Amino acid sequence: MRCPYCRFPDSRVVDSREVEEGQTIRRRRSCPECGKRFTTVEEATLAVIKRSGVTEPFRRDKVVSGVRRACQGRPVDDDALALLSQQVEDAVRATGAAEVDSGDVGLAILGPLRLLDEVAYLRFASVYRGFDSLADFEAEIVALRAVPPLDLPPPVPAGAAGPAR
Ligand SMILES: [Zn+2]
User: How far is the CA of 20 from the centre of ligand 1 (A)?
Assistant: First the structure.
């Protein structure tokens, strides 16, 4: 890694740490020529293929700005949006693909957004899935009412600790 101060072509790693649960590695480097230190960030690339065919790096702030529009006037704060964008990134990265369609990112947004705010979810889904009639909204609302948001096993009643022996 070239020193950004004196352009010396080599540098030494003096510290290396994982951040964001290992998705990013930050390295402190030292230049043997001028002695200055600088930081580099290493992250696996995740590319999003847009409908136009253009590829761009995945960015959580783009998820946030897309979802924020659907959340206007809703009780959803910036922390919740940041968490949602993290969940979306985790879900997309969990597929193991280095490139994903923008549609898959939209799909990954729907689940966590539904848990966050159902009105915002409906707005987002209406744009993302291209609802063009009241019937589309109606069908989505029926589906929302019919399917619980999470496929979690029913809670274990207090006192019932495991199967009887
Ligand atoms: Zn240097």
Answer: 29
Q: Which residues pair with 30 in a beta bridge?
A: 12, 37
Instruction: Identify which of 90, 78, 81, 87 has the alpha carbon closest to the alpha carbon of residue 22.
Output: 90
71 C-alpha to ligand 1 centroid (Å): 47
pTM tops 0.85, yes or no: no
pLDDT tens-place string over residues 111-141: 999 999 999 999 999 988 889 999 999 999 9
Both tokens of 38, joined, read 């600088």
Distance CA 115, CA 88 (A): 13
What is the Å distance from ligand 1's center to 13 Cα?
13
CA of 9 from ligand 1 middle (Å) equals 8
8 Å CB contact between 93 and 57: no
Q: How far is the CA of 79 from the centre of ligand 1 (A)?
A: 39
Distance between CA atoms of residues 85 and 21, nearest Å = 15
